[in-house]
Amino acid sequence: MQYNKPTNETILAALSGQFRTFHQTLNKRNVACQHTTPVKTDLPEVGLSFEALDKLISAEVVPNLSASNGGRYWGFVTGGANPVATYADWLVTTFNQNVSKGGDSIASDIELQTLSWLCELFSLPRSFNGIFTTGATAANVLAAFTARQYAGLQQNIDITKSGMAGLDVNIFSATPHASMIKSLGFAGFGQNSWQKIPCNPDTEAMDIHALEAKLVACTARSKIVIASAATVTGTDFDDIAAIATLCEKYHAWLHVDAAFGIFERLVNPVNGKTHGIERADSITLDCHKWLNVPYDCGVFLTQHMDLLAQCCEVSAPYLANPENSLSYMSLGIENSRRFRAFPVWATLLAYGKQGITHNIKANMRQASVLAQWLEQSDKYELLKPCELNVVLFKPNTAVLGLTSAECLAKLNASGQVFLTPGAWQGQAIIRAALSNWATSDEDVQQVISTLNQL
Fold first, then answer.
1. What φ, ψ does residue 206 adopt, rounded to 5°?
2. Taking the CA of residue 65 as centre, how many other CA atoms within 13 Å lie in the half-sphere pointing to its CB?
3. How far apart, in Å, are the Cα atoms of 332 and each of 132, 133, 166, 257, 269?
4. Are 278 and 210 within one domain?
5. Pick from 279, 283, 437, 284: which is nearest to 362 by CA?
6. Which of 169, 297, 290 lies closest to 223, judged by CA?
7. 333 and 367, same domain (yes or no)
8. Which of these, 47, 95, 97, 324, is most buried using a 10 Å CB contact count?
């Protein structure tokens, strides 16, 4: 029996058709698909022809997709796939390189070069290096691993080899991202292991004096501090420079979750909101957010690559590396690794620092326009000045007669925008995050019109 083996020409024609149709209809389709329906087919005994498969995808998959690659998908912190990164991602699949180690492909060298360029882009010292991950969650897992290893070595315990029995450590943070809490659980610390540091009034930023008081009173033999460069709701920045000074004084590991906040470093000089991040022991960032490359693409950076290797390296004869070649399988979670650095490499080359900065400034300006309109509207309440790219608001219940949840549902059901909920100072709110290269000023005006029509 001859199984499916479409020609390259057939595959390229189908791919071109799907790409063209999807992107040409982005502005016409609902931003979020509200009523998805499962594909109506069973597992076939005899496979479909490629042509039938392509028609099935067009008929039953594509209509049930969101327009998350378009300019009005403002939920979470979601970037779109820029054109160059999309092209490069196609090539990633075409080339199908396993970036587990060096010696047989240029892929590992490109990953190393891309990491170096990211450090240059964000004005980080050359002492930083790291690895591409599936996203910020995986990067935060590696952060928890390396911090754990650091704490263990302070107490003469090799945690990777011997486990956590007897480890004495306290973890401090003010407003950690959910993925960081998840990572603490993965690393064996426990999701409830961290101690909350109070925040500065009306912010999610850490109270430095409260942190120092905790560090002074701490009797644990090791200490870990998790700081935020742009919290997920309020986009507040911890005073990283002051925290770094305290961590150095009290011999604590400093991890900074800067998944999208590190991009502020392109708009303001190194003395801006991220001042001091260059002194962190480790950093998380996410390229499929504000760098606008396809999912999935996070980065873990650290100034302690030896500790990262201690956490991840395991020997096996079939995994032996050629002498003097790089082994990424010894620096991350996966042994088999997609060539996910390539879309970042291509994006950095195609747009450069100026082009990337231009997109970030545009999103910040657009978010500011939205915030200014909300502040002047009698239908809504702006809950916090917009300082980066996230706008927090809620409906004026006296005027609209809607709760935040009801208002959010109506807005998303309109098909004109997709927003996500949040909580701010004990209030249920609506959160708009503008981080897509494709968002235009016209998109902002279209959303404002939708808001005004409620």
1. -70, 140
2. 17
3. 8, 8, 25, 18, 31
4. yes
5. 437
6. 169
7. no
8. 97
Retrieve residue 382's tokens. 């702006």
Is residue 49 located within the same domain as residue 190? no
Cβ atoms within 10 Å of 295's Cβ, excluding its own: 16
Count of CB atoms situated within 10 Å of the CB of 400: 16
Clarify whether residues 267 and 374 are in a common domain.
Answer: no
**Using an 8 Å Cβ cutoff, are 195 and 272 in contact?**
no
In a domain, 417, yes or no: yes
Amino acid at 412: N
pTM over 0.90: yes
Unique residue bearing structure tokens 């403002």 = 74
pLDDT digits (tens, 9 = 90+) for 40-93: 899 998 899 999 999 999 999 999 999 999 999 999 888 999 999 999 999 999
CA distances in angstroms from 362 to 209, 273, 359, listed in the order given: 36, 18, 5
54 preceded by cis ω (within 30°)?
A: no
Strands 380-382 and 390-395: antiparallel
178 shares a domain with 111: yes
Tell whether 436 is covered by a domain.
yes
Q: pLDDT per residue over 160-183, tens digit each? A: 999 999 999 999 999 999 999 999
Report the Cα 322 to chain-centroid distance in Å.
33
DSSP 8-state symbol, 330: G
Rg (CA), the chain: 24
Looking at the domain assignment, is residue 274 inside a domain?
yes
What is the rounded distance in angstroms from the CA atom of residue 157 to the CA atom of residue 151? 8
Residue-wise pLDDT for 313-355, tens only, equals 876 544 555 555 568 888 999 989 999 999 999 999 999 999 9
Type of residue at 67: A
> Does 74 fall in a domain?
no
Structure tokens at 178: 């959910």
Which residues does residue 377 pair with via DSSP β-bridges, in sequence order?
Answer: none
The DSSP secondary structure of 118-160, one letter per residue, reads: HHHHTT--TT-EEEEESSHHHHHHHHHHHHHHHHHHHTT--HH
Specify whether the backbone of 270 is left (phi greater than 0), alpha (psi in -120 to 50) or beta: alpha
Domain that holds residue 362: 352-453
CA-nearest of 210, 139, 145, 146 to 175 is: 210
Q: How far apart are CA 233 and CA 183, in angstroms?
A: 19
Question: Residue 250 sits in a domain of what CATH number?
Answer: 3.40.640.10
